[in-house]
Amino acid sequence: MTRHADRRTVLKTGLSAAALGLAPRLAQAAGQSGGTLNIGVSTEMNYNMMCFSMTGDTFDFVYAWPIYESLFRPNDHGTVDPWLLERVEADSAGLHYLFHVRRGVTFSDGEVLDAAAVKWNIDHYMKVGSKKTALLGAIQSVEIVDDYTVKVNLSTWSSIIPAAFARECGYVFSPKHYETHGDAYCQLHPVGTGPFILKSWTHNVGKMFVRNNKYWGGKVNLDAINYTIYNDPLVAQAALLSEEIDVFCGMPYTGIKPMADQGLFIAREKLSDHASLLVFNSQNVKHDDPTGNVLVRQAICHAINKPALVQAAYRGFARPQNQFGIGEHFLNKAIHGYEYDVAKAKALLAQAGFPNGFKTQLQTYDGGANAEAVQIIQADLAKVGIDAKVQVLTGAAGNLAMIGWDQGLWYHSSGVYTDVAMQMASIFCQGLTGSVLGLTTMLHPDDVNAALVKSVSATSDQESVEQVGIANKILVDDLVVYMPVAEFSVIFIMNQKVKNSGIGSTFFTVSTLQTATLES
Amino acid sequence: MPLYITRRLLVMLGLALVVSVLVFLMMRMLPGDPALIALGDSASAAEITAFRDRLGLNDPLALQYWHWISRIVTGWDFGQSVLNQQDVSEMISQRLPNTLMIGLPSLVIGILLGLPIGVVTAVRRGSWVDQAFAVLVNGFLGTPRFLIAIFGVLILALKLRLIPLQGYTAPWVDFGAYVHKAIWPVFVNSIYIIAVVARHTRSNLLEVLQQDYIRTARANGLSELRVILRHALKNGLIPVITIIGLELPQIVGGAIVIETIFNIPGIGQLVMKGVTGRDYLVVQAAVLIISVVTILSNFVVDMTYALIDPRIRSASR
Fold first, then answer.
1. In the prediction, which pLDDT does B313 show?
2. CA-to-CA distance for A104 and B157, rounded, in angstroms?
3. Which of A465, B277, B299, B314 has the most CB within a 10 Å radius?
4. Which chain A residues are closer than 8 Å to B269 by Cβ?
5. Is residue B307 a contact partner of residue B313, using CB atoms and an 8 Å limit?
6. Distance (Å, whole) CA A247 – CA A271
7. How far is A131 from chain B (nearest CA, A)?
8. pLDDT higher for B169 or B317?
9. Nearest-CA neighbor of A505 among A26, A169, A31?
10. B265 contacts A203? CB cut-off 8 A
11. Which helix (H) or strand (E) holds A37?
């Protein structure tokens, strides 16, 4: 996927399609007004909350479509555009951004979105938001310049601020609603600027949203959006076929083609949004793990038939990658990776002192194609004498193991929210704490850290891309900290009668439900 | 008898306390930190620590247990969910009726169908009726419930459109919708009970029908129906009451498979998600309630024995 516009140039000029007013006031689509769009999902929200502490899990965004809009939003080209902002000015020398708030935007409670509301939201997120340190750590203060202008002051330059505000960090809530009712109430009764209002929420069952008749963006076609949780994929398939639901998110890969064969539409974004990687115990704190040896890691990369693995595990809905990231904008073509070569793998193992292989463990979190992928990897490793015991973990055990899996390998799928620099900085930099991939198991080299710090603070897109490329080269080719496997996107299965919903069109975090219609 | 009951109540209380300690410790022994699930990735160590502090998860275990149990005893306060900050007693009180509205009808249907099947197959032992029901009962016992549930969904819901695919409406909200949605989950939930009750009734009745007093009753000219209903069934029911008593906790605990497939917001689903998410207080509260029901149902079963069987009544004096 090639970008059509340099993203920092877009921001500096301060103009975008959104600012020209094209995005929010889309022409009314063909199709009937009214009706309820029924969306099926496979799980409840991660934290069961719809307020500031959302964790940014895939389903957090899917549930947020009807009611929340963010300061920026992703576009088809892999960059972000101002959305609730009219335009943005970036001053890297002055260490600040100027956010010009879009006029005419209102919350569903009637309150106006202005500079004060934007400042309140950013300030509040900086107090309680779950990504405040990882993504917005450079923000020092927020000032109101005038009624519709906010100045975001930084301690150091950070180019990822717009991308960060294109995700849940940039969702805006009604300050008056929050201050009137308090946090506990707002968690279950959120008020955003979106085209729908939350009417009811039965935990682990479903949610109902009804039309916001005062939506600032114009007429909303649908009467309501109804979310229902389908824990069992077979029942979900039956629901799609019987038209009990119009859209489903969370179908296992095995269930997607049968739905396509039945005439349902498989919505796949132009830009991938997830990357999967096989991560090694490169830190090897106890000095007893063969995967702590770079020759062994190289051998493992050669032993795995990546194209076959991706095809088998992802059923054709992913493509092999040779570096962390999505799309082509950050691609470093100098990275060669490791081609499938069993003989070479065995030779490297012998050179490393393991001519007969060794025993190890291969863990992953249960979700998506992870369980299938690790079984295929296990089989490939067995061909070179590596006996990998597979463990598929769920829930809290999986989250804990992700931080430090003690030894062997960890298979990971990571969301990548358009900006690869942002995502890599939150995973591979030094000094990270808390719930971070491989915090106690993966090497965080100085040169990688330096490159990623430069990428985030870059004042030009070219510099950011270059530094990400340097970091990936070291991580993949030189030190083999991880083996990139695939890039893929969240898949939505849709009834053909759903039109202009934007679901699965640009990026999974956004949709255009205000223009959605249901053809009869 | 009053002394017996008092002793039993004290034992029950002790058992409940032991269970509370066990479930408290078991949840904390499971690997995984609920704060990580709650806060997601990219939460810093400081944020995770602050979250745990706020919920008292960094306190010593004994203190955590004391806070939990004393709040329950003094104020019936089960605390707040670690994951979503909701009041646990409110979550359980919302879900328990849903579980009971699936479980209780299942139990009733299980008994109403299981008993007659057991009686008929015992009386008509060896006949084609007995053989046919044997196949059915063994089929029910041997087939996983989720398979029958899914099969029914695909045939009855998708193909024939007789029932909805999933979902639940409380009977007090819309009784017609409740019946329409619950009919299949209730039936699937009851088939095991039908099979178990039928089988035990049959085997017990067969034994009772061989007794001398039954032969005497027949010799005295009583009709077969009277012999069975008046003389045989009462004695044949004692083990069946045990089975019913064992099923009561299952009803309160919720059929996880049924609740998952049909997306019924019940206790089983709540406990399942609580365990995977390490939502300590939710799981502890639910398990405590289920164990109290188990203990109570055993007590009720014992008292029922005493009512039915005078020999047991005399022995307890």
1. 60
2. 47
3. B277
4. 204
5. yes
6. 20
7. 6
8. B169
9. A26
10. yes
11. strand A36-41
A302-306, B113-117, B151-155, B242-246: which is most confident: A302-306
Query: How distant, in Å, are the alpha carbons of A301, B94, B133 from that of A288?
Result: 20, 51, 62
Average pLDDT value for residue range B299-309 = 75
pLDDT at B31: 79
Chain A closest CA to B24's CA: distance in Å?
Answer: 17
Is the distance from CB of A397 to CB of B31 less than 8 angstroms?
yes
Instruction: Pull the structure tokens for residue B197.
Output: 């009750």
Look at B165 and A232 and tell me if their CB atoms are within 8 Å.
no
B270/A136 Cα distance (integer angstroms): 35
Kindly report the average pLDDT of chain A as a whole number: 90
User: Closest Cα of chain A to B239: distance in Å?
Assistant: 37
Is residue B238 within 8 Å of residue B309, measured between CB atoms?
A: yes
CB atoms within 10 A of CB A505: 17
Position of tokens 């010593």?
B60
Give yes or no for residue A461 having a pLDDT over 50. Answer: yes
- Residues 212-241, chain B, touching A (beta carbon < 8 A): none
User: How many whole angstroms separate alpha carbon A489 and alpha carbon A187?
Assistant: 29
**pLDDT of amino acid A20:** 39
Greater confidence, B312 or A106? A106
B144 touches chain A (CB under 8 A): no
* Calpha distance A216→A89 (Å, rounded): 24
What's the pLDDT tens digit per position in A276-334? 999 999 999 999 999 999 999 999 999 999 999 999 999 999 999 999 988 888 899 99
Q: pLDDT by residue (tens digit) across A478-520?
A: 999 999 999 999 999 999 999 999 999 989 999 999 999 999 8
Contact yes or no for A41/A508 (Cβ under 8 A): no
CB contact under 8 A, A396 and B30: yes
**For the purposes of burial, counting CB atoms within 10 Å of the CB of A447, is it exposed (0-12), middle (13-18) or buried (19 or more)?**
middle
Half-sphere exposure for B12 (CA within 13 Å, toward CB): 18
Asked if B159 is an interface residue toward chain A (Cβ–Cβ < 8 A), one would say no
- Contact of B51 with B58, CB cutoff 8 Å: no
Average pLDDT over residues B247-265: 83
CATH code, residues B94-276: 1.10.3720.10
Residues in a beta bridge with A458: none
Q: How many CB pairs under 8 A join A and B?
A: 147
Rounded to whole angstroms, the Cα distance separating A332 from A321 reads: 11
Mean pLDDT of B127-137: 90
> What six digits make up the tokens of B289?
């309630």
Q: Do A397 and B32 touch (CB under 8 A)?
A: yes
Suggest the residue from B26, B42, B102 to mutate for an interface test with chain A (most A CBs closer than 10 A).
B42
B153 interfacial to chain A (CB closer than 8 Å):
yes
Collapsed DSSP state (helix, strand, coil) of residue A373:
helix
Residue tagged 């409380």 (tokens):
B170
* Boundaries of every domain in chain B: 1-83+279-317, 94-276
The terminus-to-terminus CA distance of chain B in angstroms comes to 6
Tell me, what's the pLDDT at B269?
86
Give the distance from residue B67's alpha carbon to the nearest chain A alpha carbon, in angstroms: 22
Report pLDDT for A22: 40
Q: B148 in contact with A at a CB cutoff of 8 Å?
A: no
Give me the long-range contacts of A350-357 (CB less than 8 A, separation at least 24).
A351/A295, A352/A290, A352/A293, A352/A295, A352/A296, A352/A299, A353/A293, A354/A290, A354/A296, A354/A385, A355/A385, A356/A385, A357/A384, A357/A385, A357/A386, A357/A387
- What number is the ipTM of this complex? 0.78
Dist CA A181 CA B2 (whole Å): 53
